[in-house]
Amino acid sequence: MAIRIVVPKAPPMPVFPPDIATEVKLIYDKFPKVGAKISVMWGSVELQKYLNTTIFDDRGGRQGFPQPVISALMRISKYHETLIPEANQGDVWNDVII
After folding, report:
1. Residue 39 domain flag
2. Which structural domain, as residue segments, surrounds residue 75?
3. Predicted local confidence at residue 32, as pLDDT
């Protein structure tokens, strides 16, 4: 009797807008788990929350991301913000007039 083990394949990476495709690829290449979370949560308010806590980690004792990755995460976050404007509701800085 043979046991067949089936390993689920990761979902394919969605097609991202050309404005941020290179940034998302960089994240996938350097930090695959972060890239996978971005893919799964793309288009949701939860992605904005995840990106904010990933970019600005307050847990301490962590090395942090290399500068190119931080820049890419910030560009992805800014772009995604335009898709999900309700993600900014409740942010006190949105009401500041300069």
Report:
1. yes
2. 21-89
3. 92
Q: Is residue 38 part of a domain?
A: yes
Residue length of the chain: 98
User: Structurally, how many domains does the chain consist of?
Assistant: 1
Least confident of 43-52, 63-72, 73-82, 85-94: 85-94
7, part of any domain: no
In angstroms, rounded to a whole number, what is the distance separating the alpha carbons of residues 27 and 32?
7
Q: What is the pTM of this model?
A: 0.72
Classify residue 27: in a domain, yes or no: yes
Write the CB contacts of 69 (distance below 8 Å, at least 6 apart in sequence).
Answer: 26, 27, 30, 31
Of all residues in the chain, what percent are helix, strand and coil, respectively (each to 5)? 55, 0, 45
For the chain, how many helices (H) and strands (E)?
A: 4, 0
Number of other residues whose CB lies within 10 A of the CB of residue 22: 12
